[in-house]
Design goal:
By secondary structure, the chain is of the alpha+beta class. Helix content is 27%, strand content 27%. A hairpin with an 8-residue loop joins β18 and β19.
């Protein structure tokens, strides 16, 4: 259970302690501001690439309380490449199935599966409190010798000069400056770095409030996502139920706009909602109650010379669909290999402009889905309410109506259909498989998985040895693998002689039915060193 300690009114899960001044300063390739899951994931990725990384976090503890809990398969695939996913899964609650209810019916309107394509290593989702996720990431980062974490060190000033950045840092033992070629701001929705640079968000604030009630109870329920429209225990509104580790359950109740926030989190007002959802005879303990209002907003650009933004510092979405933290981890996966190549002198600023393009595409997709989810959950007119109820009524009996039911479009990998790094299919080629700009799909091998083999490099995934080898580019030949039931060949539509070029973040850069050395080399240069 979380530590009973608190600091500045914030409950503490893990008291790390302030990093002493004798650890400062140093010579770094990248400074990361912010020690949440996004900053920690980026530090782990860059550190594993051998980059000298400094991570600064203004708090000297891991905060408990209600934050992100739902982590998607795409995020788990990223963490699996970095060696932490198995610990996440072992600690968390894995789930694939979601159910949507309407009114007082005990039968779902419909049921969906977040992992419709089976035989992949990672589950569709896990539920894991953010503080436990941070615990695992901190332990992993601490084992990387090129990464230094400084806790209780707050960035108070920033200057971009002479092709680098100087940060003014305040710590309990004194103040100091640190210089680095690059700074990545992962410092959350109130980002001090963004404020120091005079940058802001554009977007929309939603006029509604939601109650999070994390409660501890002993009850056998399936590890599924249950969502209610207009339930009898919260009439005219919505509710959500998720299972977490340690006998904790996440309950979410829509409250409306004009509310007394302090009154809404009083135990005597939360209890009727909990008992209405779970049963009058249920015995439970309060773990965490809070009320939130959310925004769907983003910065106009994420790359500002030598300062780059990622995660909530760059974009905000509603919690419905679990797109916030998952979108932030996607940012780090997109950025790490690009920044590594720029630091190595293998690519120029054009590659970071590609990060800006693709991360903005991801943010816009997440904002679009979050906005649509919220508009469906909280109809603002009689017409939109009538539309929503008609969709729910039809969804009971008609499969075609079910995609229109929006209880939070859950986070999946975003496609970069017009990425400057992707090479379009040649017009005469006919494909099923996975198009350029889309993330690859896992498949089982005897004793291994395809994503493990791909790793974090540029890879040529070739159907057979007739595909030409390009010097300096690692090649995996599928017909030499133990491909169970030809799953790789079928999922990628790998006919004899065909091939895929896969990026380090496991997105498809190009594919060919009849590749030549010249075609492969041109696509590789386009993806790895644009503008060179």
């Amino acid at each position: 259970m979380p530590n009973a300690l608190s600091r500045d009114g914030i409950p503490i899960w893990r008291d790390v302690g302030a990093t002493p001044m004798d650890d400062a300063p140093g010579d770094f390739d990248v400074v990361i501001v912010g020690g949440g899951p996004v900053g920690l994931t980026l530090a782990l990725d860059l550190g594993k690439k051998g980059r000298r990384v400094l991570l600064l976090n203004k708090r000297d503890f891991v905060a408990a309380g209600s934050k992100a809990i739902c982590f998607s398969k795409r995020t788990l695939d990223i963490w699996n490449r970095l060696g932490v996913a198995q610990a996440m899964i072992a600690t968390g609650v894995a789930w694939n199935v979601g159910k949507v209810f309407w009114g007082d019916s005990s039968e779902p309107v419909f049921t969906f599966d977040m992992l419709p394509l089976k035989h992949q290593e990672m589950p569709g989702f896990i539920n894991l409190p953010q503080y436990r996720c941070e615990d695992i990431l901190i332990d992993a980062v601490s084992k990387v010798p090129t990464v230094m974490m400084r806790w209780g060190h707050e960035v108070a000033g920033l200057r971009q000069v002479d092709g680098g950045v100087t940060l003014d840092v305040v710590a309990s033992g004194g103040n100091y400056c640190v210089d680095a070629p690059w700074v990545v701001a992962c410092d959350g929705h109130n980002s001090p770095v963004r404020t120091m640079m005079g940058l802001d968000f554009d977007g929309r604030v939603f006029e509604d409030n939601f109650l999070i009630a994390d409660v501890r109870l002993k009850q056998e329920r399936p590890a599924e996502r249950w969502f209610w429209f207009d339930p009898p225990f919260n009439p005219g509104r919505s509710a959500l139920l998720h299972k977490q580790p340690d006998d904790v359950w996440r309950l979410d109740f829509q409250l409306g706009w004009n509310i007394d926030r302090e009154k809404c989190v009083r135990p005597e007002n939360v209890e009727p909602l909990v008992r209405g959802m779970l049963g009058n005879d249920i015995e439970f303990e309060q773990d965490w109650y809070s009320v939130y209002t959310f925004q769907c907003r983003r910065m106009a650009r994420f790359v500002h010379d030598r300062v780059i933004f990622a995660g909530d510092a760059a974009h905000l979405v509603s919690p419905f669909g679990a797109r916030g933290c998952n979108g932030g981890v996607a940012d780090t996966d997109n950025l790490a290999w690009k920044l590594d190549r720029v630091l190595a002198g293998q690519a120029g600023h054009e590659l970071l402009e590609a990060y800006n393009h693709e991360a903005v595409v991801t943010a816009d997709e997440n904002i679009l889905n979050s906005t649509r989810s919220t508009d469906f959950l909280t109809p603002k007119s009689t017409t939109s309410l009538a539309f929503r109820d008609a969709v729910l009524q039809l969804a009971k009996d008609h499969a075609w109506a079910r995609p229109f039911v929006n209880s939070g479009r859950l986070s999946t990998a975003v496609a970069y259909s017009d990425s400057p790094l992707s090479q379009a299919d040649q017009p005469e080629e006919s494909w099923q498989g996975i198009a350029p700009g889309h993330v690859v799909v896992d498949a089982p091998l005897d004793g291994d998985w395809l994503l493990h083999l791909l790793g974090g490099d540029f890879v040529l995934l070739a159907a057979d040895r007739s595909v030409p080898h390009v010097p300096g580019l690692r090649m995996i030949v599928v017909d030499e693998l133990e491909d169970r039931q030809d799953m790789i060949a079928s999922r990628y539509d790998l006919q004899p002689g065909s091939a895929y070029l896969v990026r380090p973040d496991q997105y498809v850069a190009a594919r060919w039915r009849h590749p030549t050395v010249e075609l492969i080399q041109a696509a590789y240069e386009r993806a790895a060193s644009p503008g060179a």
